[in-house]
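Team,

Forwarding the record for the chain on the shared tracking sheet. I've put the sequence and predicted structure together so nobody has to dig through attachments.
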Amino acid sequence: TATRDDLVAIADAYAPRDVYSMEQWARQNGAQTVDGVELYSADGGSDWGLIHNGQSTVPAGSPVVYVPSDLVLSSDAIKEEFGGSLEAAENELVQLDGNTERRLPLFRLMVKLMAEYDEGTDSVYYPWLNSLPRQFYNGVSMTDECFECLPPYAAKLSLEEKNMYSQFVGAIRDGFVPVEETTMNDDGIVSWAYNVALTRFHEVWYPSRQKYIAPMADMLNHSSEPNVEIT
């Protein structure tokens, strides 16, 4: 297990996101982009995405980013990787609330992110993890005072998300999953893993319903008008 000095600095919300090391790592492992696609931040380095610089023409429907399958995090593959320990946690979740069954792919991604975090610089995904945001502004990140400021329907949805997150945390902290105790008991790390999984997954329905995260491709569609299809 890595020492704490080797871990991604989750506690520092303003830690710089090392996106260029992530890009280099992704390309070294087979990721490709079409000419003109590059990393860009409109706010000086807090929010990053992949854009096309407009210096060349990309016909509609053309591939713009390719990520090899062995870099992609798959909820089905995670289920196979962690086996019975993950299954025990999932069974507890479903017994507690049957509605959580449809969210199990998200739970698997969350657990995998925490396990890779524990590996520190030994994790093959460390350059990607170190490029991710530390701050999020969704229901899980809100206080009771925040909910009171929201319109009723938005508050309802945000509270449902926070309640689901609390159930995930309970299942993780019961000790079934292969995550260090110091990690699973750190609220900042746990919420970070959940928020990364929640905000960066892509869902597929064939041949089975599962969720994927494709490092580097997860930098697409971060504008208010997404225009890239992920397949």
